[in-house]
């Protein structure tokens, strides 16, 4: 062995002190990173890098450290790389944020703020990846939301003001239907409400955000103001005139019919109008009654109502331009005939004009929204994600649809030239892709046309080659080639309709010339097949079906079908017509056979009834009934009842021939062999001259004598020695003393073995098998037997479990009367064993059952509890030393008695039940 140290410790040589190694120089970046480059382990280096990153180093320092560290420790350099990526993303987001901040500032600084533009800014900024949650976009987003909220609040207040104006006008209308003094009492409150409404409307119009509301709201507010002031301006003079008329009887009556009627009655006059007319007469803008020709008034009302109906129809359908024209026409008619119409009709006219103005404003805004969506769609045709670019045809269809939608939008409202310019530019840019695609389509069409012309020439050449080949052709190959030509033409590529119309006749002419020989052969084959169908019909209609003729006809059909192919559907129809008469003939034959076989015989009916009885017994759950039903089923299967009936009939028929039977047996004894009665079952008949009457059948002996050992055969002479046979087996003594040998003792014959297999089964009482069963009867009896056996096994298992439960209950209560009977315990427990168990149960508890339980578990081969495994192994070792002692499998009955004599415990009861469950089954 070599020593571990190269220096001998016992040597006297002076020990040389090694020179210290030169200290490694520190890395230049160690001072910057806090010693990350000189760290001993990767984990320590990563920790120092994280501490250094917490000091927020500059991007230049990060880049330098990453460059040096990435080659040494990629795990530690990952944190530096992530910080650099974060800085790059922040720079990119700063640029995006600055861009979208400028856009938001422009929106806020604009003289008119559009809610749609603010929503689009927020949506597009999110799509572009702008950091909306960081400053300055977060504050700009909040300002935009606040501005939108202010504008929406203004628009809501406008709607409220409109409703308030309508309510005030309704109040004035209602007051005009009441007594003038009630109206005069409510005049001051009404004046205050009208002034407050005007003040609020002025506040709305003076709000700084008023120019930014939608274009439809200012006209609505002004229309409501005008209508309210008109009604209020008519109501005040009417009240003053009513008060003057009440004080001065000479003063004129007010223009309000209700008040005028009231004042006339107060002056002592008679009422001029009824109450119903008085309630419907007031108008918001009542004017003094002017005497007008009724014809002129009717003509004016008809003109105004016609223009009003037209405007209401266009407004209801949402037609912007048409409603504007209808509103202009209505205003023109109103200027001409306005002084001749009543107040109610004038009120309807004003309402319709206000609704038309709202529709025009809404449609203008809605049309702009639709145009912006179309512009976005047109620009999005080219701005698709990578790998999702649209094809030329798809872009062409999209452009056509977009332009059609733009036309429809322009038809419903005023044009927007700025949006049209953007839309047209986007469509022209996308159409360049369509132009490139069209060029490619034209080139492909020219190529496809050349391929189709070449295919037509190839088909013509193939037709000429087939014509030169002769009359003998492989029609299947011809048909396959024609199909291939057709597929190639179908897959020849796209050409325009004009070229296709030019090439298609040429192709049809060439293909017809090529397929003409095959079509001729198919016509001839059709004639032959129709002839075979007629022949098959004649064969099927024949009273006796000739199988050889059918086979020959089918072979001819197969040869014809293999030689000349037809269309698949046509060929299938011909085949169905060919096989139909033959199938019908075979079906008739099968139906006759099944009809004959289906007629259940008396034996089958008996078996079926017995099977039903077995099923009923299975359902009852009674073992005795099941066994009795099974025995009846076995008897029915063997046909014992039928055999008894037949034997009784045979006995009655042969009772008259009993006297002739002995004579026939005596005549046949010297000549007939001894086994004739056993094999034939009937006595041989005598000659016709000697015995003209037929001999009665002789009774069959229980065991026919075939041969016996020695010379004791019937008719043999006893004094003649027997012929020498084959020598006996080694060790077999010669029985000369006349005592019976082995074969004589056990009742067997040692001579003739009775044929090839001997008389091996001659000593058995073979039961004759019953008649053959039909299919239904056989299946029924087999299923009934299987169900019965399963039911017996199930009932036996139930009874076995109940017997064990009774045994354990008797052991626990020390009551021998509760012990189950020997029949319930099974064949493994004789009456003597049960008696010993009863004595053990009735006696007082004594003894230890641990060893007996172990022996029972060993005999039953069931597992032993874990705490008793060591005791079981020790007992097994003891039994190996006691070779003459009986095994546990032999003494399990005595061991059970020892256990039953001991005190009952739950653990011992479970172990005893588990062991007996296996032992009683065996």
Percentage of residues in helical conformation: 55-70%
Radius of gyration: 61 Å
Portion of residues in beta strands equals under 5%
Question: What separation lies between the terminal Cα atoms?
Answer: 72 Å
What structural class do helix, strand and pairing data support?
A: mainly alpha
Largest sheet: none
Extended strand count? 0
Return residue spans where pLDDT drops below 50 for at least 5 consecutive residues: 1-23, 273-290, 654-702, 704-765
The number of distinct helices, counting runs of at least 4 residues, comes to 33
Global mean pLDDT:
75
The backbone outline, from C-alpha atoms, is extended
Explained architecture:
This protein is mostly helical and 922 residues long. Helices cover 68% and strands 0% of the residues. The chain has 33 helices and no strands. The two termini are 72 Å apart.
